[in-house]
Amino acid sequence: MSVTIVFGSDSGCTKKIASRIASQIDARTVNITKAQSSDFEDCSLLILGCPTYGDGDLQADWEDHLNALEEAELKDKKVALFGTGDQEIYPDSFVDAIGILYDIVVGKGAKVIGFTKTEGYSFTHSAALRDGQFVGLALDEDNQSSETDDRIAAWLPQLS
């Protein structure tokens, strides 16, 4: 299975998570600033990673290069999502960015896999919730970094 992880990252946190995931599943990583439509299309599994900024915004590089995703042919493509956020400072918009990306890829006909439960998190609202679950892997490196390895390990088997 060929896997491509497209991520955006300002501080390097989401890039490090993308690299950690990639090393465990033999995936290639592509920064959204360099991504082209083919990066989204030419793989068996597409993983998108994005931090949530402020009160629920996409990371700036995702905002600036979203057209590459929007122009890609994703009908029936398997897509998984992961996002980073801060559930203590931004409890009303925790990992909202992956909810935004979810809506885009589903609107393009993709099949999203890798939903995760909300147990163990402390937030009040998230645009990344569907039917009581996160649309992907939710990570809080500011407050729960000790949980990251276990959360990744529990998430990855769902993607095969």
UniProtKB/TrEMBL annotation:
Q: Could you tell me which residue ranges the Flavodoxin-like domain spans?
A: 3-160
Record's keyword annotation contains Hydrolase: no
Instruction: List, separated by semicolons, the cofactors it needs.
Output: FMN
User: What molecular functions are annotated in GO for this chain?
Assistant: electron transfer activity; FMN binding
Q: Which UniProt keywords apply?
A: Electron transport, Flavoprotein, FMN, Nitrogen fixation, Transport
Q: Which Pfam families match?
A: Flavodoxin_1
- Which residues belong to the signal peptide in this entry? none
Stored InterPro entries: Flavdoxin-like (IPR001094), Flavodoxin (IPR050619), Flavodoxin/NO_synth (IPR008254), Flavodoxin_CS (IPR001226), Flavodoxin_lc (IPR010086), Flavoprotein-like_sf (IPR029039)
General function of this protein:
Low-potential electron donor to a number of redox enzymes.
The record's NCBIfam families line, in alphabetical order, gives: flav_long, PRK09267.1-2, PRK09267.1-5
By sequence similarity, the record places it as follows: Belongs to the flavodoxin family.
- Protein name per the record: Flavodoxin
UniProt organism field: Zymomonas mobilis subsp. pomaceae (strain ATCC 29192 / DSM 22645 / JCM 10191 / CCUG 17912 / NBRC 13757 / NCIMB 11200 / NRRL B-4491 / Barker I)
The major lineage groups are:
Bacteria, Pseudomonadati, Pseudomonadota, Alphaproteobacteria, Sphingomonadales
